[in-house]
Every structure is written in structure tokens, then in C-alpha cells.
Amino acid sequence: MSSIAATRVQRELKDINSEECSGQNIRIELMNDQFEHLKGEIIGPPGTPYQGGKFKLSIHIPETYPFNPPKVKFETKIWHPNISSVTGAICLDILKDQWAAALTLRTVLLSLQALLSAAEPDDPQDAVVAKQYKDNNSLFYKTAKFWAQIYAEAPGPTDTDCMDKLKKVTEMGFYRDPSLRALSSNSWNLADALDNIG
Amino acid sequence: MLKTTHLENSMDNNLTTTVDAVNGINDETVGYDYEFIPSLDNKYMCPICLLALRDPVQTECGHRFCHLCILRCIRSKASCPVDQITLFSNQLFQDRSAHREVLDLKAKCPNIGCDLVVELRNIKNHIAKCPHRRTPCKNGCGLELLEQDLVHHETSQCPNRPVTCPTCQQEYAFSAEKEHEEECKQYEPVLCEHCNHEVKRYKLKQHMSSECPQAPIKCVFDKVGCHQQYPRHDIKTHMENTTQIHLQYLLSFIMNLQKQNDELQESLKVAKLKLDKTTAKENESSDATVSDRLRFESVNISDGNIYSPNHEAASENDEIDEIDRIKVENKRREEAMVSSASSSSASSPLVGATGEPLNNHLHLTMMVNKQTDQDGKIVRLDHHVRELMAKMETQILQIKDIQNRLTGMEQRIDNQELRCCNGLYYWKIKDYAQLRRAACLGEMPVLHSPGFYTSPQGYRMCIRANLDGVESAQGTHLSLFVHLMKGDFDDVLPWPFCGSITLTVINQKELPSQRAHVSEMLESRANLMAFQRPITERNQKGYGYIDFLPLNLIETEGFIKSDTLVIKAQVHVYELSLQ
């Protein structure tokens, strides 16, 4: 890794972990000494279905950082129109063509937090989620909240209807993740979900 | 001349940094990395490296950056990294005021234990003389120490400090003591099991085999039968006391030898006798051979059946017939001889003597026969080989003809492709390793791609690659340029060429997600020779990057696959003058 990228990441880590940023509910830590691979965490913003959830991110710093954007994706599964519910890949302009060298990991994480507050269903990463968001927003809210509780330790009582259906499918011998995805993608209709389980 | 063309890309105003510095990576190419007192104000912080501005420049949109940081940045994307407004290198201005202010900032000495805060302009001088500066231990243990502690550490604390072994006088690292002890055991004294004397371990073997008075050794008469062992100092007494016994051993040994000798003599005699007999027989038979051969040939001629070497089908039947015929002939001859012998009233032993050569006759005729047969076969095969060779030559000619026509066709297809690629051209450089070597040796420093068209009726241009770099990037970077070429539609096209060209070196790693292509976009400039209408087949001047990609990355970062480098050029023509 070039020393430019390494010194810059080092510098950013110093800033992000200083007291200034402690109130912003974001965290970044190193995975190895080379500053190539980092782990990030953002807390789901209040007033959203993700409220209080801890969403882990994997961050890869390219050799050409900061002249090229870092490669960021969600490690924690999340139900969001701009984030793939399968791979965690993120659709966000500043991680692609709108990246600028003056942006930092901190700004990236804050932008992701903002993305959780304000989804952009017209520029989706996950078409199924985006369709649900537009067609049946309350169902989307319920699903996203349930996912946050299952995967991101979001607080609050879980939806009993969702939990029962998930239990039913898993008891048939299916794994939890594909079961939950099938239910979520099929408007929590048990029969449809079973037909389309992947 | 070339150099000025290439450098126009980055030399603007009075900013005199070379392209190499933009690519080069060391501490001096980013901002000042110190702790400032008070902490660094944002207006003095470069938004790219997040450090204190080094050689600050200001953009037209009013943002400050380190000079090298912003040059690197706009190379990949021509916009201000803060507000995304389009930004070219000619829109950067040296900010001398900020430069002075940054150098006035107070920085803390980075050495642990030194609390000195000095102006940034003086900090380098201070660090060089700082009493708290650390020097690396010369034993290579990795520690860095203060000057005053260094000697003590290097001589009595460092795990790598050299120690002299009291036993063998050799030097070894303190941490390797155990390993050395193991090695040194060879020098340790041990007791000889026979004489109880102290001997160094590595000398023990030698001691036992040639010195130790107690070590058991064999009597010299061991080979003739005295198989006992005695301590070395007793062996003399043994020799003196047992002379008689030793003599007896010797006597029986000699007797045995004599017996063997007699046996050998006997068998030699028998062998000699046999040899004499055979030589006699051979002499007789060789006399007979000559006459027999003459006879055999005359028989062949009289039969009118001369064995021709060109005879087509010498089947086994023929051969058998031939042998039968010779057998009959021989029998007849034998009878004739017997009768002549009896008529001349010769003694009976003579009959026996003539009988044996007759068998030899038969054998020889067969041999001669076989030989002739083989000669025939060889001639036939030779004939066959000649025919095949003639056939092959005609076929080679045909293949050459076909190959010529094929290359012609391929060329036509290539030309068609080059014309219809619409400015998106992939150039595959095969045999990269060999070409790179040729470039290093200076045999073939430059490669040109075939000329491709920006549209079927558009500009024609080619990519030029210096695989070992050129000018200041020689040996360090791959250099890529674009050269305009004479095309079929130059007369109707607007000149100079106006458009953008994106050059990309394609990364060919196994996983598509890991393929980090290296791409640079360049804009044409009306005032450059490189973009004027070509008056030669290919414009002398090109435009591009002398330092497109570090050479070491090409091989290590997956840009080569199957020994092939792939370069992509994408050309957009701005059709302003046509509207």
C-alpha cells in the first residue's frame, strides 16, 4: 500500500476516534497493520426502522486512496432499497463517480447514516426492496425493523407475526437467512415464500 | 523535442514540479506530518492528505491544497475535490502567503521526551540535532535508542550483540547461544572409553583409530587366519609370541594358492587346445569359400534368373525356392566330390575333411542370398522416400500459397475492424516478456498499434507504447501516447483534432471484482503539434503520459495474462466545427 494512502488513513483514524466524533454513533477500527482493510460500525438513526441497530461495514482502502473511493459494503444484513439484501453492496454516488479526494471515511459513514434515514428508491440497489418501499411502505417499515432486530440487535419487541412465520419456515429445514429473505420478498405470504425460497 | 510535448500536460504557470514528483511517493510528497501547538487550523490543512499544507496552491474556486496532492488528484479526475467544480492544472496558483503562514506554525518535536515547540521552518534543523532523537541499533535488533543509551545497549543489552565463545573463540549473537553451544560441543573434551584419557570430541575418532594405546586393533595376519584383536600396546608381544602359529597360517594359505594355480593351468591348456582346432577348421573353410562363390554365381547366370536389386516383390517364397535350389546344388556337388575322392583312391579321413566345408558352403550361400535380398529392399525404400519427398515439396508450396492468402484475408478483416471500431480500440500486446526485454536492451524501444478510426469516416490514430518507459520514466514506467495518422477522410475532417482520449491499461486478474484498471483521460489541445493534420503517415509528435503506470506493478498486479498486455483507447470527437 502506498504511503499516501496509509498516512491518510492513519490520520483519519486519529480524527474519527477523537472526542469530537464520539457523539455521531460511528466507529472505525483497523483489521491489519497495512491500513488496507478496516471495519466500520454505524448506529441506525432514530426515527427510522433501523433505530438503535448496530450495522457493521467492511471497508477496503484501494492503493490509490484518496484519489479513488474506498470499497464499502454492509456486513450486517439490512433491508434497504439502496443496499443489496444478499451481498450488502451499496448504491451511493459518493462511493462511485461522485467521490472526491476531500471526502473521508467519516463523511462516508455519515453519508451512509443519512442514506438509512432517507432512502432513494428511484436509484435502487435491491429492486425487490425498492418496489416494496414504494408500493407498501408500511410493510417495508415492518420488514426493515424486523431485519434490524434479527441481524443488528436493534432494541424493542419483535413482530410476533413475522417471528412465527420465520419459525415455521425454518422448522421445515430451511436456513434462516434465505427463509427470511423469501418471506420479506413475498410480502410475508407463507405459501409464496415457500415457492420462491432460494 | 519529445519531452516538451509530454510535459505540457503538467507544467503550467510557474509551478515547476515534474511529473515524476507527482508519481513518486515519499514523506516529502505529502503535507507536513507534525503535531501543531495549537492544533492545526483547518485552513492550513490539505483536504487531500489531511496534513499541514506543503507548497500550498490555491484553486480558482478558492481552495488550498498541497501542490503535489492536487496534481495527483486532478490527474484522475479534473475537478476540485472539495466542491467538484471542473479544475485543470492551469487553474492552480501558488499561494505564497499561505506558504509563509504554514512555515510560521509552531510544531512539536516528534521525538519522545523532547517537549520543544519550534516554528515549522526550523523543525528539520532541530530534529537533526535533537538530543532526544533515536538512532537504530547497529546489531539490527530493530530498536531505536537515544545516543546516550546506544553504546550500552549495543554492547550489553541487545539480544543480537556479538559474544565470543570461550571454548572455540568464535563470535555469535547473544540470542543464538543455545545453537552455538550445540555446535561448540565438538570442542568439548570427552573421555576415551578405552584409555580414559581426555580427548576433544571432534578428535575422538582419529584418536581411537591411530593413537589410543588401549584401542583394540586387528593382528596383521588377520587375512591369513589370525582373527583375534589386541589392544594397540599389546600387539607387539602378540607378534613375538605367536610367530610359529602365524607361520602355520601362512603355510596353509600358500598351499591353498598353489592348488588354485594348478587348476587354472589345467583349464588354460584345455582352452588352448580348443583354440588350435578351430583355427585349423577356419583355414580350410576359407579356401573352400572362394570356389563355392564362383560356382554359385555361374549357376545363377545359367538359370537366367539374375537376382535384380530392383526386383519388386521379393516374397519369402522366392527366398525358400532359392534356398532349396542351393541345397540341391550342394548335394550334387557333394556326391561329385565323394565319387571323385573314391576314384582317386584317397584315404577315408579325407572324405570327413571335405564334408565339413560343404556345410559351410551352404551357410555362406544363404548369407550372400540374404545380403542381395536386403540390398534390393534398401533400393526400393530409397525410391519410396524420394517419391514422398517430392510429394511433400509440392504440398509445402501449396501450404505457403494458402498461408499467403489467409494473411491477406486476415489483414482485410483487421482493416475492416480498425475502421469500424468507432474510436474504441483494444490493443493486445502479445509476447509481452520478450518485447519488454527487447525494449530494455534498446532493440525495440517503441511499439505502435495498428491505426484505428474514431468512426468509419473519422480520424485515424494509433497508440504508442514504450514498454520500458521513455525520457525520465525510462526503466520505471510504462509510457503511453496517442499519435494521429493519415486517414482516408482527412480532407473532409476539421483540423486540428478536437476531442478526448481515454487510455486504459486493462487489469486481467482472475476475479473481475479485483480488476483495478488504470485509466487516464487526456483532452486534445489545439496548439499542440500532436493534434494537427498529419503530413507524414504517422504524426511525429504524440501526446500522452511518459509515466502511465509503474513497470513493477504491471507484472505484480495482474496486468499481464498469458504473456499479453491489453491497452484500451476510447476516443470521443467533439464535433463542434461541424455544427
Q: Determine the structural class of chain A based on helices, strands and strand pairing.
A: alpha+beta
Let me know the largest β-sheet of chain A. 4 strands, antiparallel
Oligomer: heterodimer
Number of domains of chain B: 3
Helix amount of chain B: 40-55%
Task: Examine the coordinates and then state which fold CATH places here, giving the name of the CATH topology of the largest domain in chain A.
Answer: Ubiquitin Conjugating Enzyme
Secondary structure: helix percent of chain A? 40-55%
Radius of gyration of chain A: 18 Å
Name the chain pair with the biggest interface and residue counts per chain.
A-B, 20 and 23 residues
CATH architecture of the largest domain in chain B: Sandwich
> Using DSSP, what is the number of strands of chain A?
4
Write the CATH homologous superfamily of the largest domain in chain A.
Answer: Ubiquitin Conjugating Enzyme
Domain TRAF-type (chain B): 151-236
Pathway (chain B): Protein modification; protein ubiquitination
Coiled coil (chain B): 254-281, 385-419
Catalytic activity (chain B): S-ubiquitinyl-[E2 ubiquitin-conjugating enzyme]-L-cysteine + [acceptor protein]-L-lysine = [E2 ubiquitin-conjugating enzyme]-L-cysteine + N(6)-ubiquitinyl-[acceptor protein]-L-lysine
If you had to describe this structure to a student in words, what would you say it looks like?
With 198 residues, chain A is an alpha+beta fold. Chain A has two domains: 3-117, Ubiquitin Conjugating Enzyme (Roll); 127-196, no CATH class. Chain A contains seven helices and four strands. In chain A, strands 1-2-3-4 form a four-stranded antiparallel β-sheet. In chain A, helix 3 (127-135) packs across helix 4 (137-152) and helix 5 (160-171) crosses helix 6. The longest helix of chain A has 16 residues, at 137-152. Chain A starts with a helix and ends with a helix. With 579 residues, chain B is an alpha+beta fold. Chain B contains 14 helices and 24 strands. Chain B has helices spanning 2-7, 19-23, 67-76, 96-104, 120-129, 147-157, 177-184, 204-210, 235-241, 243-303, 316-343, 348-420, 432-441, 551-556; strands at 35-36, 56-59, 64-66, 92-94, 106-108, 117-119, 134-136, 144-146, 162-164, 171-173, 189-191, 198-200, 216-218, 229-231, 424-429, 447-448, 452-453, 460-466, 477-485, 499-505, 518-523, 543-550, 560-561, 564-573. In chain B, the strands form eight sheets. In chain B, strands 15, 20, 21, 23 and 24 form a five-stranded antiparallel β-sheet that branches. In chain B, strands 16, 17, 18, 19 and 22 form a five-stranded antiparallel β-sheet that branches. A three-stranded antiparallel β-sheet of chain B has the order 1-5-6, with helices on one face. In chain B, helix 10 packs across helix 12 and helix 11 packs antiparallel against helix 12 (348-420). Chain B is flat. Chain B starts with a helix and ends in a 6-residue tail after the last strand. Residues 1-20, 296-316 and 341-354 of chain B have low confidence and may be disordered.
